[in-house]
Structure formats: structure tokens, C-alpha cells
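Thread: quick sanity check before group meeting

JM: Hey all, I'm pulling together slides for Thursday and realized we never actually wrote out the predicted structure for the chain we discussed last week. Dropping the sequence here so it's in one place. If anyone has concerns about the input, flag it before I start.
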Amino acid sequence: MSCILDQVASISNTSELAQWLCPHLALNVSQSPSSSGSGLMENADWNDAWGDWDDAGKGDTLTAGGDDVSMKSSSPQPETSWLSESVVAASPTSELMAVGYKNRLVILTCRWEGMSDEDSKMRLVYTWRGTVGFTPSDEISAILCLPLLSQKQSSAGGPDWTCIIVGFTSGHVAMYTENGLILLSQLFEDGSVISLKCRTLPSGSAATLVQDMSEELIILYPRSITTIDGFSLFQTLRGCRNQVAKAAASGGENVSVPPLGYKKWGLVDQVVVADCVAPGVTPPLVYDHMSHTSLSKGCNHTFTPGVPATSLLVTVGRVPFVGFLSAHEGTAPPFVADVALHYANKLKDALVSAASGWLFGKGKSKDPEKSNHKPKIEPATPLPCKSSVPDKRRTGLSVSLAAGRRLAAVTDDFGRVTLIDVNRGICLRMWKGYRDADCGWLDVESEWGGSKRRVSFLLIYAPRRGLLEVWTPQQGPRVAAFNVPKYSRLIYTPHTLLGVNSVRGVRCKVFPVIFVTQDGTISEISIPFHLALGGKTSKRARDLHLVKTLKSQLKNGNEEEVMATVAEIKTLGVRKQAIMTFVMSQHLTTTLLQAVLEYFLPLYSLAEEEGSSGDAIPTQDHESRLLGQQLLRLRQLLSLYSVLCELHSVREASPDPDDETIVLELARLLVLTPEETKTVLLTFQHPDLNKPSGTKKVKFSDVHPNISIGSFLRCWDVSVGALVKDTSTAILPVNLKEDINYEKKLKLGEFLYGWAWHRESVKAFGAAIQSSGANPELLLHVALVHWTLCPHPDTVATLHFGTILHSLSRMAGEKVLCDISCQSPWWSAVRDKLLASTQPFHAYIAALLCRGVHARLEIYFQQAAEQEMKLRSKVDPDTDSSQKEPEAENDQQPKEHYSSLNDWEGLSMEMVEWNLVINQLESLLPLHLLLSHFPPNGPDRQPKLEVSVKALLEKGRGFVGELIANWFIGSGLPLDTVERLLRKQDKLRERKSVEDKESEDAPSQEEKDVSDKAEKVEPTEDDDNMEIMRLLVRVGEKFPHSVAADTVLTNMAWELAAAWHKTADDTNLISRSVAHIARIKNSHIRHGVALMIWETWVCQCIQSASSLMDKVGRLPKDRMCRRDLGIGEHSMSSLFQIVLLLLEQVMEANVVCEVEKPLVMSPDRFWLGMEGSPSLVELTVMQKMSCYDLVYQHYQLVMVLFLVTHHNLKSVRPLSYVDGKGRSVLFKPLTTSWTIGGYTEGPVAKARLALLCRVITAAVSSLPDDGNQKQDNPTTVHQVLDLGRAWGVSLDVLHRHYICELYTSAQDTMAEEALPLVNDGPLLGSQLVMVAGQRLHYLLVTSERTAHHMALTSPTITEWVKSCESGSLRCPDVPLDRTLQLLTRALNLLPDSSQEYKMASALYDTVSAFLKDKSNS
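JM (edit): ok, ran it. Output follows.
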């Protein structure tokens, strides 16, 4: 990529603009359209002109293919133009431009216009134009466009609006909005404003020399420099714009704003000043400070050890040519005289107005007359030159500072451009032949080796020669040149956005340099980083440029251009990069790679061949030989890719899986008899593994491979850093990369082994793998991954995989074999993968194939060794033909001589290991079938359960039971169905063990008999449950103890409790867990699992809940419950009820375990001779026996929690009902020895009785109001009575309270049923008399015939009834006959001599009179 000049925008109606700005030049303005010089303007062919550059002073034109690359307009160029006569400034974002001529100002803003035109881009149209100035003769002398950073979150890092700062010849500085509204103006000095510049933070991460992060506006006058702080300017401009907008919206006048604070420095040591820049605060250097003090004040002067911070200013002009001024920070405070005078005038006007109103009675003062006097100009602080570049004859015209603030370019009146080192104060370089030149700087960034590098390019525009050049400034050559129109402008905008800091950076594109022609074309310069690389690295830079070009050409797909570019790359390192570019490209083709290899291989392989023959010394270096071997590896992989593509393109039908020949060939490969092979193939016919279709389909492989050549090559490590010294075989080893992800490995396996199986295809595949040099061990592992994902393996697929295993193992040679007492590392890695596979069926078939391949290879190599010994003894020259005889004999083995490995005795360690692995995988087959089968009416989201031998060995003896439990949980079967299935298979297993203890002699017939028995046991069972039953029976043959009913129910209870612990708000899970515990028959297992669930999860939850409820004194609110317990408020009661059932299971099992024998656990046959962690059932049996009293103590506490939450009682603290002895053992392990009973404190006993009475009241209050219907006693009352019995509370008190509450609630029928439970009849009778009196009081108060009833009542009864308040009655409106019956019950309970008996008799007579009166009326 070369340097280009690209158009980004254009100015609309340049003729109209020039006519309005410069009427005297209107006739000379070119009328050509703006697009005449637009378009992509590229540099001359950089590749052709790389070596030498012509002298810039001659103005030579660089050509590309014979055509001049220029921007010259079609019209004749005038002697001068409106662009060179005007003062032009552009925003760094290129969205705004301001042009001024004398007192006329035009503001241009960006608009998108002419989208239909392909060449048109952004256009700048004028949005405001007018005359400006403060005196009739005032003219524009300097303009600056300063964008302000946006404070909005939506446009952070971009510009909000742009302020146009204009300097006049009168000395005024005015600031305008984008619409031409003046914000503020101020006079800092008498004299013309020479230049306006702003120092802001650079965009990106420019490595500036100084650490100054401040912003500053610099105003240059002929004899002074005025600086304004950027932060205060930013705030002032924003405030002024807001005030102006408010005033314009309200229709009022513009408000006055206070003047700006500033610093002013006097230029005393320079005769003429033409331009200046402010690099900012320089780093303090002690040596420079000492030398400057010694030179300026003498050697005897004492100096301060602290180096003050100084701000550097660089001026250009005459005598001296370049001056360096250092201003100490803090020596010149901002002038606030104008600010103080402004507020003093306002205060004086206010005082005079107030005084005149008070003296003369005027309520409103007149507006003060505006002052017409000239504002006071503060004197400047003298600032001498610290150092200079003296040249009396030379006058500096302009200075341009680079973004890094280290270098500056100075133009002078002699047509020279001088490069200045700002920090050191010296000249570095000078260019001649650039009169009236414009200079600019462009920073380019590149990443190399993980770090970023930045370089600055110097741009010089010579208007008289029409030449724009790009230079590497300090020592480099000219790297680009453009022929451009004369009298154009190179506008350099070193600042970015005002208001940028470390938090809000520049996030928009900036244009530090733009090139503007007189026809309105605006272009940017793009420079690639590699142009800065010169000297010894020039060839490498050129080649790097070609590599970048190569990437773009690969995307276009033009192979001729690609090969032409490859031929131009000369350096070795870049050639390596080019080759890796081909490998990493997504657009690489086989033909292109073949062409590249044919080009490079003769260059790097010839010396390799010479070095390998005889004692010749290689002529190439180490890196060249490495590249040659890399190319050879690519050629080998390309050949393998081509063969695989041909195999995928074969369109022959695959053989029939049921073909007898295929079965016999597979039997030979497995080293089994055909009958045993067919038995193995029966495993493929299970419905959950392979669902056979009605018709046989012939499958053809895809014509196009599913992986590109680039993706295929990126899977291999072709760039090895070490040379292969043994090159006699001409085939270099190639390894797969270790960091290939799983998906890419699957695609690679599909491409390597997914072709259709044929005998010829197998031979071609073996030859291609052999010639490719690929590592067969790594290919074998990829083949295993591909095999495990085979959806429906059949006979052909198994034979296909077996032949691949045989070919790869045969290729490995003797690496596969080992000593009889050792294990082969080749097969050990394979066994590890098979044991870790979660596809036991595929792993089982693969293990059989690997065992057969190993046996065949042992026979083959043994026979080959014997033949070799015979040949050595006979000295037979036909060695090669004899070595093939054993395999030929093995292949031509007759049908009747098939042998079986099952009949062999494992004499080698390898065969023993393979038999063990096969037995382990075979044991997992029925379990895998069960886990893969789900009922059709099960839940939609079913858990994915996978099992492998490795996981089974690592997780211990209880993993099978855990998997089956999870399967039953995920199946959605009801608990009754699960228990019925498990109990059935237990009965079948027990019956089978009794009937035939040697069932292993005929496993297939036994399996059929057991399945028939399962069908006969329950003929009403549906088909799906029968299938589950069959699978359970098959799993029980391998893992009988893991599928026992109690084992599965225990694991289900544990898994449900664990799931509840994760989502505590779902109490249905813990409820199901307790329900499963109740179905466990063995008391030791039931006791152990209930105890473990309590200790592991439930105890902590109950402890937190009791502490929280004891703290708040009631049921906590939902938010507090979820915060501390993770349970909702409405789930607390049901949780406590479930915990009560759990503790009841513990207590019940505790009692039964005393008479029931302990369970003796024995491991399954799978675990014989192996160690593993104990199962869950074994852990439950090993649990210590719990303390019944301690369990009952916790049961009482949970009962209190349940009663409080169920009835939502207030002011209840659950722990206060536990005495001191019981509280000391709360929430300790339930196996702790402890005895309940002893003395109970009086306050605790009273609190318990009060609680029980409150619970009874709440329970009776929850009953319906209809007392005529017969109802059962509430469950809560029975729980209260049990709890009161445990606490030692008098049950007679609770019964009396219960009966009274029933009568109070008008539940007379239930109360009469509970009367026989009371022992103290007289006391209950007196309480019933009181209830009858309350009912009679309510009747006398609410009856319409109160006076008549009062006449029927004796005075004594009347007074007593009045004292009985009926407010405590829940249902006071009760029929009189029921009250009369109540009095009858009371009279039966009271003694005849008691006073209550007499009162009850009188009440009985009164109620009877009421009833009689009611019947008469």
C-alpha cells in the first residue's frame, strides 16, 4: 500500500464564494466543477521508485505507468487566487471551515448532498456570511476553528459545537457560534493579531515529550503573547452559548459576560515576531537550571535547589531567527483588573440608583449611559529569550509543531524549511527550494511484536511548483510526492477538541492535515507506516508492503496477480510470512497452493538434497532449510487433501450391511467367529440406539468436501522450529496442533474418515496417510472422536472404522507392540479415551476392534520375524516378497478356520487389559440404555445423564444408584409407579437367585426368561413401563445392589433434598424427599438418610428460622424471610410441617432399629478387586443411632414454629418456650446423648400454657360459623394436646379451654363431644354458666321485646346478666334451645349445694320462660 491523497469533501459554489469574498479576483476563479480534480489521488508507483529519490528542488513529476498523478485543474491557473488571499481555518473534524478576507467572514458547514453521484462525498456549504470588525478599517488577520467536546452520554468523545475565534488588526479577539452569533470579544493588546493557536490533548496515545496535560489558547501580537487557560475558556464558552440561546429564544438583548482571565508575556529580545507555538510545560532538568542560572546571573550567584516548572514558548521571526522562551509557572497570574472593574461599575450603578431613589423619591433609576472610553490594557510581563537560533539575515515566517511536541518545522523568506529540535533548541535538518511553503505533520501508528509504534511524517507543500511531498523528517528520504494544483492550501490543525481529559477522550476521527484546492476539493493524506522504514530495512519494508498487497489480492481471487506478487518478495523472513498468509487465508485454493509450492520448492529443496547425499555440505543457511522443510510438509498435506477429496467424490453405493461377506470380513478383523460377531451386531438393533427404517437407503458421500484447504492446513503444525536431520526417507513427520478446539476436530475427523467404505478406498487412504507423514497416533485419536459421534453404527461403519484402526496401527509399526509383561503406550492412550467416553456402545465396539487389531498385529510381526530369521539363515534375496506372505496368508484364511479371542487365555498384559476394558464397557451397556430411554409422557426438559467407566470409577460405588435415581426423578413417573417397578425387579432377582444360582452359563436365555416373568407378574402394565422393567432387570444383572428398591429410593430422597437446598422456596422438593424416605423398608437405611438430610441441610435452615422468629417475635415479612432464609413467607408453614414428618421418620426408625438386624452391604461384581468411595446407602448404614429424647426435643421446637406460622400468632418468641436444659442441646448432632425431663421453670411453664391456649383459640376460630353440622376436631388441637402432654401441662385445663372456645364459637355439638374428657366438672360447669349468661345478655340487648323479657326475669338475674359482657363471644346469636341445652349440661356438672348451681337453675327457668313466651306468641 502506497501513500495516497484521497478526497473527503468539497466546497460547493466556489465561484459564488470567491465572488463575494474577493470581487477583484472573481474573473480569474476557475469555473470547472468541483469534481474535476477529485477522486482517489495515489502516489506514483512506490515499488518502482523505492531505491532512489530525485532532488525535490527540481520539481520532477513522479509517474505510474506513464501517466502523471496530478490534481491540476483543467482551467489555466491565475497568478493568485481567492484561497491564497484569504485567511482559512478548518475544524480538526473537517465538519466546519471558516474563510475570511478583510472584513468579510464566511462559515461553511458539512452537508451530505448529491448521493446519486458516485464521486461526490461530503460538501461544505456556507451557512453564514457577513461583515465583522470593531472599527471601520478593521480586518480579519487570524482565524481558529475550535470544536468543544460534548458532555452528553450519547455522543461522548465527539464534538458538541464549534467555536470560531477571529483575530482582528485592531487587536480585538471575537468568538462566534456556528451561526455567526457573537459570544464575547475582548481587547488584549494594541496591535494586529498575528496568529491564533490552541494546545489540546492529542487524539489516541501520542508519545509526547512533555507531561503537560493542560489546554491553552495562544494569541500572538507583534510585541506580546497572550495565553488563556483552556478549562476556563471551555466553561465560559458553554455558558455564553447557553445565555445567547436563552436571550434569542426570549427575544431579549444579549447579556453581558465578564472578560476572560489571561496571562500576558512581553517579547523583549526579538525584533520581529511572525509566528509562535507553545509546546507546554517542559520536564525539569537540574543541569539546565544550574547552567542557565550561572550564565545569566554569574558564577557566584546562589541558586535554589528546586527546579521550577517552566512553560516553553517558541517564536520565529527576525533577530533571532528562532527564540526559545521559558515562563515560570505562577509568576504571571491572570489579570483580573477588567473583572474587578466590571463588577465595581455594576456595584457603583446599583448604589447610585438606590441613593437617588431614596433622596429624590424616584422609584426607578434610568439606565446608565454606556461608556465609550477605550478599555484599559494591562502591561505584559517581560519574558526574555532563554536561548535562540541566531541568523540575522533570515526571517522566520511560520512554525508548525508536531503532535509529539518534540519537532517543529520553520519556513523562512529564503525558501527554506528548517527542522528544529524543540527540547534541545537546535536545528536538525534544512530543505531548500520551498518558497511560500505550507508545512504540516501527520502521525502514523502501527503494531509490531505486540507493542505500538508511532512515527511522524513531515508534509511540505510548495505552491509555486505545485508539489506536495512527504518526508521522514530527521534522517529519512522523501517517501512520497504528488503533483497538485498551484495556489492551493495545506491546512495544518494540530489541536483536537477543547475539554478533553483522561476520562473523556477523543473518540471521533480527526484530520490534522487537509489539502484544499481553489476549486473546492478537500483531500486527506494517508501514509502507511512502512514508509518510515529505511536503510537496511528498506527491502524488508518493501516485502512487508507486498504481503499486505497479497492479502487483498487473495480476497479478489486473481491467482495470476498473486503469483506475480509472490515472485517479487525477496527476503527470507517475509517469504515465511507470505506462506503463513496463504495458510491462514480463507480464500486459498489447491491450485494456488500448488503453484506457490512449485515456485518455492526448487529454491529451497535443491541444497537440501545435495546436503543429504554423500558428505556434501549444505549451501543454505538454517532458516532456508527450515523453510524448505516447511514447504515439503505443505506438499505432503496437499497431496493428502487431494486424495481425501477424491475419496469424498466417489459416487459408488456402499455395501449392504447384511452382506455375509462383510460380516465375515468384520469377524476376521475382530478375531471372532461369525456367530460371535453376529451376537455383537445385535446390540446395534436396540430401538434407543438405531431405529431401522422401512427401506434401505443408499448413501453417497458429498461431492464437495466439508473443509477447505486452508482450514485443513491450519490443523497441522507445519512451521516446526527444529530441523529434521534424517532426510533419507524424503517424508517429513507432520503433527496435529495441540490447541485444536473440539468443533474443528470434529470437522477434521469427518473429512479424514467420512468417506464411503470400499476396498479400493481403504488402500488409497492408507497410501495417502503413509506418504503424508502424519502422526498415526494423533490420527487415531481423531478417529476415535469421529467414531463416538457416529449416529447409527452398522456393520459397514464398524468395518470402516476397524480398517482405519488397522491401517494406522500398521503404520506405527513396532510402536504398537511391547513386552509380554508391559503395556503399550499406544494402546494405553486409546484405552484411556475409551474409558472416558460417554458413548459406551461406541467405546465397546472400538475396544473389540482394538483388541482384534492388536492380536492380528502380534501374529503378523511374529510371523514376519520368523520369516526374517529364516531368510537370514538361508540368505534369500527375495526379502520384500517374503515379508508380505504372512499378511496374505492371514487375509486368505478359509472360512472354517475362524478362531475367537474369547477362547484365548490372556497371556500378555495387553490382552488382560483389553479384556478388562471390554468387560467394564459391556457392564455399562444396559445402564446406558436405561439412561437413554425416557417415557413419552415425561416432562419436556429431561436431564442429560451420561455415564462412562472413568466417571464410574472416580465417583465410587454409589454412582450407579445416583444415576438411576436422577433418571426416575427426571422421568416424571409417580412415586407409586416407581416403587412398584423397583419392588417387582427385586422380587424377580430374588426368585432368579433361588431358582438358578448359575444363571451366568446362559445369559441370553436367562434374560429372555426374566423378561417373560416380568410380563407375567403384571399383565396390566402398559408397554412403556414394561420396557422400563426389562431395562431395570438388565441393569440389575450387572449392578444388582445399585438398583435395589431401597437403594434407589434413598438416592432419590437425597437428590430431591439436595435440589431443595438449591431452591429452598420450592418446598415440594423436600416434601417429595420425605415421601420417598417413608417408602424405604429397611429401618437402618431410612434412619440414616433422614438423619443425614437433617444434619446436612434442614438443621441449619431450622436454626436460622427459629433465631429470626425469636428476634422479630412473629412470622417475618416476605422480604426478610427471603433475605435471611431464601424462603418465602407463605412457604414457612409448609416447610415446618414437612420437617415434622422428617423427624417423625427418624424417631420411628430409631425404635424399629432396636429390634431389626443391621444390613450387611456387599459391592456389585463390577467393583470386585477395586477400591472406591462408599455409596450413599453404605453411609446411611454407618450412621450412629440418634438420641430419641434429643430428636423429640427438636420435634417440639419445630412444632412450636409450625403452630406459630400456621396461625400467624403475634408476640411469640419460640425459643422462650424451651427451658435452659433443652436450649443447651438445641441444634447439636442428633446422635448426642441427652435425656429429656427435669424441673421446668415457672415462667416457661406459664408461657407454654398461654401459647397452647392461644393456639386452641386460633384453631377454633378457623372453624366455619355453622355449628349445626357435625365436624371433626381440628388437627391442630391434637397437636396441641400432644405438645402439652410432652411439656407436662395439665390436659384438663386445655380441654376446658377448648370446650369453652367451642361454645363461644357456637360449636355446641363439638363441645358436647369433648365434655367427657374433662375431669374437673364443677369448674367447667361454672365456666359454662358464664357463657350462658353472655348469650342471654346479648339476647336482652338486641331483642325487640327487651321490656317484656325483663319483666319475665327476676331482678337478681337481671343484675347478674348485665355484668356479663357478650363481647368475648365469637358467635353470640345462638338459638335459645341450644342455650337451654348448655344450661342443662352445666347443671349436670355443678354440685347442688353450690352457688353456681342456683344461678344456673335461675337461668334455666328464665330461658325456659323465654321459650314458652316465644311459642305462645
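AS: nice. The chain has 44 helices and 34 strands. The chain has a mean pLDDT of 81.
JM: adding both to the slides.
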